[in-house]
Amino acid sequence: MDVTLSGTYVGKLKVAVEHGPSGALLHTAAPVDNRGDGSSFSPTDLTAAALGACMLTIMGIVAERDGLDLDGCRFQLEKHMRSDPRRIGRVPITFHMPAGLDPTARKKLERSALTCPVANSLHPELEQDTRFLYPD
User: Fold this and answer.
1) What is the rounded distance in angstroms from the CA atom of residue 27 to the CA atom of residue 63?
2) Half-sphere exposure of residue 98, counting CA atoms within 13 Å on the CB side?
3) pTM of structure
4) Neighbour count for residue 19 (Cβ, 10 Å)
5) CA-CA distance, 46 to 40, in Å (whole number)?
6) 24-73 pLDDT, tens per residue?
7) Which backbone phi and psi does 61 adopt, to 5 degrees?
8) How many helices (H) and strands (E) does the chain have?
């Protein structure tokens, strides 16, 4: 499915982006270390957030399909930039998984997360350090 997004430069290194199908808006701002004020997500922040959200969404699809309870699953990540060229170099991401998932379900969810469309779309040199923590 094709999706149209549009962006408008609103000044001071900030952009307003509209999601065509829904009309939802988001705003970006250049980070402090790149001449901006850091008042919102930077474009690279959104890229890192998209990785985590995509992985969790794909796990959700698998969980719904297989009758698994993924409620409360969450992620935390860090975005590490590199220079020459300036880009995201590393994204360590940790998923805090819900209790009660058997080894087969765990493996299925982990495999699905690691093959999400965003993960497959990012630069091959970007280090995606992914951990899954289980409470039991």
Assistant:
1) 31
2) 14
3) 0.94
4) 13
5) 10
6) 999 999 999 999 999 999 999 999 999 999 999 999 999 999 999 999 99
7) -60, -45
8) 3, 7
The three-state secondary structure class of 25 is strand
d(CA 86, CA 43): 12
- Does the pLDDT at position 136 exceed 80? no
38 Cα distance to chain centroid? 19
φ and ψ of 126, to 5 deg: -70, 125
Identity at 22, one-letter amino acid code = S
Sort 14 into a burial class: Cβ within 10 Å, 0-12 / 13-18 / 19+: middle
Please confirm whether the linkage preceding 124 is cis (ω < 30° from 0).
Answer: no
The length of the chain is 136
Query: Residue 128 pairs with which residues in a beta bridge?
Result: 91
pLDDT of 1 reads 80
Q: How many other C-beta atoms lie within 10 A of the C-beta of residue 15?
A: 16
Per-residue DSSP letters for 51-71? HHHHHHHHHHHHHHHHT---T
Expressed in angstroms, the distance from the first to the final Cα of the chain is 39
